[in-house]
């Protein structure tokens, strides 16, 4: 069972299990698409493909097929992730959400060749699954298991469709990443390659939204809305990916000590939670604080999320030391660390801040909100 900090790392997510150190989680929005697929299979697809069965059979088959479909999505994303790890990248998490699955890459690929390998393996894995399910469908039919054959037939089709859809050459789809890898190889510029692939992706996304609008006017409300939602999502991710590349380039050469907060407010470990609220959270307005020994050595971080579920009558007896996140390497950076590395680390962190430590003494603090302000100012100033 995950710790409290890990469980609340991303509000709206549920951590399921780990594969090779990669956390598999589901966003709450995933339940929406799970129910929609389950309903469409149990009420529409299976009764049409294999009529004259009872509702329990259709719903049972629907549950099995829907779960296997999402396992196929995980397999697709794991293929990306394992190749990325072999290329020296870190993949902390794969998340299932309303539009499918996404692997959280810690950084861009090192070169065009790695980008191509990471991108192409996803559709290839889906094609492989389609072939496997096709053979399983034939085996089930030969053994006179018709409903099982229908399930495998659906999985054959859906994995083939997943592979083909992802090969559309628009960023951030796999096809768009393949296009970016090719342009990166031809031009030698990741920025220009990302901009071109992103523009293609945004164009395709707008086309999907227009097609969705046409479908709505043609009476296909659900299908049209779905195309509009997917198009809007893809357009946003395409633009965001390009902006992220620009951000990475703008931060080259910037160190942590250039942006860290030097005058840090710390709290003692024996401080009652009630005093933490009145004397620090409400007084200073910060949502988290380093926990400091009297000698000035940091021993942890306490944030508002650690105490929000503590009953009011228990806040006087509970101390900061009991609820804090103990210090560990994931919460610490050095002042000469490149800021882009600190951004990756704070993005993977359970908390919204990192301690800047040198020779076992805290010399500063960086926070997500502070880094966002820094990036916004640099963007406005064009520096």
Task: Set down the secondary structure blueprint.
Layout: H1 4-7, E1 13-19, E2 22-27, H2 30-49, H3 55-86, E3 93-97, E4 100-104, H4 112-142, H5 146-166, H6 174-187, H7 190-217, H8 221-250, H9 273-284, E5 288-292, E6 298-303, H10 304-307, H11 320-323, E7 325-326, E8 332-333, H12 339-348, E9 353-358, E10 361-367, H13 368-381
Parallel strand pairs: 2-3, 8-9
Antiparallel strand pairs: 1-2, 3-4, 5-6, 6-7, 9-10
Helix pairs in contact: 2-3, 3-4, 3-5, 4-5, 4-6, 6-7, 7-8
Description of the structure:
The chain has helices at about 5, 30-50, 55-85, 110-140, 145-165, 175-185, 190-215, 220-250, 275-285, 305, 320-325, 340-350, 370-380; strands at about 15-20, 20-25, 95, 100-105, 290, 300-305, 325, 330-335, 355-360, 360-365. The protein is about 60% helix and about 15% strand. The strands form three sheets. Strands 1-2-3-4 form a four-stranded mixed β-sheet. The protein has a three-stranded antiparallel β-sheet with strand order 5-6-7. A three-stranded mixed β-sheet has the order 8-9-10. The protein is α+β, with helices and mostly antiparallel strands and about 375 residues long. Mean pLDDT is about 85; it is low at about 1-10. The longest helix has about 30 residues, at about 55-85. The chain contains 13 helices and ten strands.
């Amino acid at each position: 069972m995950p710790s409290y900090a890990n469980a609340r790392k991303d509000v709206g997510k549920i951590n399921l299990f780990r594969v090779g150190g990669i956390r598999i989680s589901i966003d709450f929005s995933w339940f929406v698409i799970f129910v929609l697929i389950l309903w469409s299979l149990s009420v529409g697809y299976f009764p049409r493909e294999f009529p004259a069965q009872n509702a329990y059979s259709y719903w049972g088959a629907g549950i099995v097929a829907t779960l296997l479909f999402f396992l196929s999505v995980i397999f697709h994303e794991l293929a990306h992730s394992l190749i990325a790890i072999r290329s020296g990248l870190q993949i902390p998490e794969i998340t299932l959400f309303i539009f499918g699955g996404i692997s959280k890459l810690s950084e861009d690929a090192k070169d065009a060749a790695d980008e191509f390998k990471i991108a192409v393996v996803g559709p290839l894995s889906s094609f492989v699954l389609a072939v496997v399910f096709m053979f399983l469908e034939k085996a089930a039919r030969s053994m006179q298991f018709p409903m099982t054959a229908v399930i495998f037939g659906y999985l054959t089709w859906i994995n083939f469709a997943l592979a083909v859809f992802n090969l559309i050459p628009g960023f951030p789809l796999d096809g768009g990443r393949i296009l970016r890898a090719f342009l990166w190889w031809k031009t030698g510029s990741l920025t220009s390659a990302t901009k071109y692939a992103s523009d293609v992706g945004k164009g395709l996304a707008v086309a999907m939204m227009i097609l969705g609008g046409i479908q709505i006017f043609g009476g296909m409300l659900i299908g049209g809305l779905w195309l509009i939602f997917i198009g809007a999502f893809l357009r946003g991710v395409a633009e965001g990916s390009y902006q992220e590349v620009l951000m990475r380039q703008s931060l080259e050469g910037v160190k942590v000590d250039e942006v860290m907060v030097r005058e840090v407010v710390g709290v003692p470990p024996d401080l009652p939670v009630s005093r933490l609220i009145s004397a620090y959270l409400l007084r200073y307005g910060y949502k988290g604080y380093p926990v400091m020994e009297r000698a000035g050595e940091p021993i942890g971080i306490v944030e508002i999320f650690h105490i929000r579920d503590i009953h009011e009558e228990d806040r006087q007896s509970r101390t900061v030391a009991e609820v804090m996140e103990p210090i560990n390497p994931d919460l610490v950076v050095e002042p000469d660390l490149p800021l882009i590395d600190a951004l990756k680390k704070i993005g993977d962190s359970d908390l919204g801040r990192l301690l800047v430590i040198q020779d076992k003494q805290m010399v500063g603090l960086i926070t997500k909100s502070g880094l966002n302000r820094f990036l916004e100012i640099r963007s406005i100033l064009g520096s």
